[in-house]
Write a structure and sequence with these properties.
Blueprint (H helix, E strand, L loop, with lengths): L2 E4 L4 E4 L2 E4 L17 H5 L23 H4 L1 E4 L19 H7 L9 E5 L2 E3 L3 E2 L4 E5 L5 E3 L5 E3 L12 E5 L2 E2 L3 E5 L9 E5 L2 E2 L4 E3 L6 E5 L2 E2 L3 E4 L2 E9 L5 E4 L6 E10 L3 E4 L7 E6 L2 E2 L8 E4 L2 E5 L7 E4 L3 E5 L21 H11 L2
Parallel strand pairs: 4-5, 5-8, 6-9, 7-10, 8-11, 9-12, 10-13, 11-14, 12-15, 13-16, 14-17, 15-18, 16-19, 17-20, 18-20, 19-21, 20-22, 21-23, 22-24, 22-25, 23-26, 24-27, 26-28, 27-29
Antiparallel strand pairs: 1-2, 2-3
């Protein structure tokens, strides 16, 4: 093997073939094919290229704007000035959260999520906004002198407007839910798992207006004029008075199932007004030693036997229809159904038993 090294060109010859001078780092002619040539492989550093596109986001995320999520957050640790109503930057008060909602509708209803605390505030509840607390024991809204109402222009829109409260305690002195204040044609209110310390007043604008009170506890009764009232598993304690008045604008109804009261229920119809209908099923009236435990004037009442107390007054042509729990299962045979006609109660029972599957 003949070997000739050319230091100027950085190459050498073996058996007449030219090879790269691979062990010379800086003298390579850069036209070689030797994979060990460090000069060819690494070369000098070129200029910096343009910045590439931004990579995918990491695991963190930015808070969703309330206009998209339809949820506004309120916390005692929030801030009405720099807050934006998101879960990471909540408002401090319910009124501030309420004013931030400007596009609620039947197709875009909002929830104001309220954290624990005493919120000593007054405000008007907007249409299609629910105020939702973590728990009725730890979320208290209002105090002596404060008020909550529905006197807001959003209720004037003739639409299926629905608002209410869930998981809060209402402590405000004045609770005025008057659908006539804004001529609300279809307004409806819902109270779920809510404690109410004072006496709310509900007033209807027409027969569509409805209030549903479910799984709640009221300590001072309530008053309704007109309104389709639904009471489901709700208790009225501290002898609060339930007052039901007729209206010249709408029918008045009370449908109470489950729950009960240790106070009185008074329903009074005024001549010329729309009728009052009361339906009591499993709603226990525990008021005792009082002639006004259930005071009914010119009302149509349908009630289960266990919902009518001993001290009940019927005046002004009030009517009462009893519901016996066995009515739906009862069977009254005629003479033609017997074969033969029984002469004793035992014979009748035996024949009825034979008809059972």
């Amino acid at each position: 093997m003949n070997k000739n090294i050319n230091n100027l060109t950085g190459s050498y010859y073996i058996s007449g073939h030219k090879h790269s001078y691979w062990f010379a780092e800086n003298n390579c002619h850069r036209n070689c094919d030797n994979p060990h040539c460090k000069g060819c492989l690494e070369g000098p550093t070129g200029p910096t290229g343009p910045t590439g596109p931004t990579g995918p986001p990491g695991t963190g995320f930015s808070p969703i704007a309330q206009s998209s999520s339809q949820t506004v957050y309120v916390s005692k640790g929030g801030n009405d000035i720099i807050g934006d109503g998101t879960i990471n930057n909540p408002y401090a008060t319910i009124p501030r959260a309420m004013t931030s909602i400007v596009d609620a509708s039947r197709n875009k209803r909002y929830a104001i999520m309220v954290g624990p605390g005493n919120f000593i505030e007054s405000f008007s509840l907007k249409a299609n906004v629910m105020i939702v607390g973590e728990d009725q024991i730890v979320v208290r809204i209002g105090t002596g002198g404060s008020s909550i109402d529905i006197n807001d222009p959003t209720w004037l829109v003739d639409d299926d407007n629905r608002s209410g409260f869930d998981g809060v305690a209402l402590i405000a002195d004045t609770l005025s839910f008057d659908f006539t204040a804004q001529s609300s044609m279809q307004g409806k209110l819902f109270f779920y798992s809510t404690r109410c310390n004072d006496t709310p007043v509900f007033t209807a604008f027409n027969s569509i207006n409805q209030v549903t009170i479910q799984n709640c506890m009221f300590f001072a009764g309530y008053t309704q004029t007109g309104i389709n009232m639904i009471l489901a598993n709700t208790d009225f304690v501290n002898e609060g008075l339930i007052t039901v008045n007729s209206s010249d604008l709408s029918n008045t109804s009370v449908k109470a199932t489950g729950g009960g009261t240790d106070g009185s229920l008074t329903a009074s119809h005024t001549s010329g007004d729309h009728p009052i209908e009361i339906f009591l099923l499993g709603f226990t009236i525990l008021k005792i030693l009082s002639a006004s435990a259930l005071d009914l004037n010119a009302c149509k009442v349908t009630a289960a036997v266990n919902s009518i107390p001993i001290y009940t007054n019927f005046t002004g042509m009030a009517t009462l229809t009893f519901i016996n729990d066995a009515n739906a299962l009862g069977y009254t045979p005629t003479t033609g159904n017997w074969s033969p006609v029984p002469t004793t109660v035992q014979e009748a029972l035996d024949q009825l038993a034979s008809l059972l599957p």
